[in-house]
């Protein structure tokens, strides 16, 4: 039919019945072996009939030497193409399929699988053997002799270039990642382990084992033997293991009874994961990288095999772990070392600002710094949005409304850490929630990095804080919290830099609240305190209830964080705090009630301000860490008008570090200390710092 249709279109072609050309011999195991010599003779006779520009040949069928029609068995059509290609010495054999080429892993199991541009014959053969849907191994054999490339292309997508399988494709960059071309798996296997001290040095033991296996017609998929010769293990299909075990017990009945063999053990429900690559033998670190990826995914390896040719590294593991292991290994080799799977907790003001910043910078970071940020989940208190490949940050708000599911923090963390084995996972807590902060320990223990502007963990109970920091150091995970103290200002990093270079911190003093900085910067002249607080509230500088800012608790938390960073072991209760909320207003049931009653205290505030002005001073609300005397405090202080603290504007923060090196002239950090943009920017900076620690270029 195809030949007729092509002729009707005006293209000359000839139809070939391959039963007249291809001669095959049965070879057992439902396979056939081509008789190339006889087939070549018959092909020459066929060409002698007349010229043929285009040949339409039947696939899958052939004949026996007695001219009895037969088939080429499994994948016979591809096999036909390869055989005919070798007979005519073709420049190339193209196999048209329904996929764009050969994937680096099964795309049904690994969403990050990529189309490979090239494979060597050996790599394709190894992948086929280990279950990859590439080509049957025998399809490759005919073309290898004449170095004829095979190209796998998609008949439904002719614009895709496909995958070329050839003798030795060029390795684009020769690095560790490029030398591992693909991963494949085989499921439904059992591992048989024959073990005993009597095996060592006894000739013929391995022969006897595999002779028994051959006698029952079982297929050995993988073999591994200890160098001490005390054990031999091998994998066979699960459906064949019962007969294999029975045969081995019969064959070694006497050795088992005498104790020369200790056991013939069967481990059911196993799978094989194979890493395939032609250049693995000449590239150091491949095995180490593979097993490191499996270890980080908490995968237990039952057996290992690697030939000296090192075309593949094969591991046997539990079948239930196979997909996780495949994803873990693939992500380690095929994704950037600085690919980060990001989970955002709290899409409130800071969280959504951070998401917008990530959206705007993602492409630039990937192109310029090879940093690939994938937001795999966003969760609020009521709903969450999860993705297997990364959320489209241009549509996250809409999807959080239309595709969200009920919020479940445990499920959210499991999704990030267990289902997706990116090289690195980071949870970003953009809440101010104590209950969320209480999970940091568990997240770090699971190997998840943590970044947060949430002050609750570092200012909470000292014992919990010390436990968290000890785990963080021991687990080689990173815990960054720059934005907890100065929003986008480099306060924590400056302090650490001083300490790590051997400086001694004597005192830290600063205006840590952008809200209170704004209030006292504007509390001048004839303005009343209540008017300034109202203005700050309307401008969005305060919390919905201004008492949350005026109480001083937030500043006290920042003081505790800096005190602990400086080596002091203080509790929040150790910090005396001057609250700016009159005691009689602390019991107000609402923010509105508080704001209505606040003007009654304007005269008291005016008196305090006037006293300061009379002395040429201003009022500033500050936090102090007195490292020498091992204490901290939060209070309202007066400063001369030429003091740096008196010269602020807007909502700026300012922090002065007095140290052994900066004793006469403190080191000062100043800048905006409040607002969603700068706070989110501080968190974003921590994400990039994490990426640099993980290997991103500086």
Give an account of the 3D structure.
It is elongated, with a radius of gyration of 36 Å. It is α/β, with parallel strands linked by helices. Helices cover 37% and strands 23% of the residues. It has four domains: 2-104 and 114-166, Carbamate kinase, CATH 3.40.1160.10; 182-334, VC0802-like, CATH 3.30.2130.10; 339-487 and 682-693, Rossmann fold (3-Layer(aba) Sandwich); 491-672, Dihydrodipicolinate Reductase, domain 2, CATH 3.30.360.10. The strands form seven sheets. A seven-stranded mixed beta sheet has the order 20-19-18-17-21-22-23, with helices on both faces. It has a six-stranded antiparallel beta sheet with strand order 12-13-11-14-16-15. It has a five-stranded antiparallel beta sheet with strand order 26-25-24-27-28. Its cofactor is a metal cation. One of its GO terms (molecular function) is aspartate kinase activity.
